[in-house]
Amino acid sequence: MNLLKVTACVSVFSLSLFSSGVFANTALAENGFSFLTAGFETFQYEEKVSLADVNTKVTVTNPVLMTGGLFEVTPQWDFSIRAESSLFPGNSQESWQVNSGASVGSLTSANNPIQTNQFTMTNSSTQLLSQYKLTPQIRLLLGGQYALFTFKRYQFATDYPNTISITNGVVEESTGSLDLNIGAAFESDTSVQSNYRLFGSITIDKPIYRKLVNSNAPDVTFNSTDGYGLTALGGASYQLTKQVHIGVTMMVGYRQTGKEIKVNPATDLQIEIPENTIFQTKYGLSFIYKF
Question: Is the pLDDT of residue 273 over 90?
Fold first, then answer.
């Protein structure tokens, strides 16, 4: 009789352990999602050329596609991936200005703009982040991203041909940057079974490797990592079905790159990648799903 009681107690204890494991695995299985966001992005690009005392600022808008997901690895750790790509680049007129109080030959700021051209900019990036959960909602972020920015200038024009040398054709510049990301995030819920989801994050982005090439000097590679970035991402979604949420997502980013001057071996003249900043916004309609 005593043996039967012990056996019964062991069986109940084993059943409780099995049940706890099932519930934990079920929770892990329910959390996480994939997403697809379609919308628009705007880049405000600004340059300050120290060798020529000129500056420029231009804004362009493109359609953009963002995809990715969040995956629960353990109850303490999540992993996320986000990829972005510009679609069908738009163009805008860029105007070059002489700095206030400076001169370019006989030209001063009273002659502005001294040059115009058409401008396009595109961006593609992939970001991988580990997320350590201080609580289920509050997370610390650590990871990296690869970002590629490409701009083109064409249809150059000036009212001062005796002073400004006009470039024929297209000037293209591409910058690939491998960045370290560190930050924090908030997730109200990571399951599409929830009625709604609120989320937000902010990261500091520091380049650890960069390669820049410009078609005006194809034999010169610029690789300074001087600069930094800040990125804020947020949004909200509402449960459309048991497997799908629909919502909105918005991202605001700022990137600053210091100037870099080298000698062009083809001409023995100095060539400058100017100090520049990119202020970008991305927003769109999001579908969050798990099937």
Answer: yes
